[in-house]
Amino acid sequence: MFFVFNSIENKLTHPFSGQSPRPEFLANRENVQPITPKPEKLTDIPSTTTSKTKTKS
Fold first, then answer.
1. pTM
2. What is the Cα–Cα distance from 53 to 42, expressed in whole angstroms?
């Protein structure tokens, strides 16, 4: 899985070479809204995952 964050001014255009456009779930063309930053730091947000690393004995 990957995410691409792009400038709100750099909207998608029609594909080159007569190709079909990507589906909406892959390339949003409608209802595009900028991301609103959160005021807290990432380090202040509790982790929702746990690290399970095994050590060799």
1. 0.37
2. 23
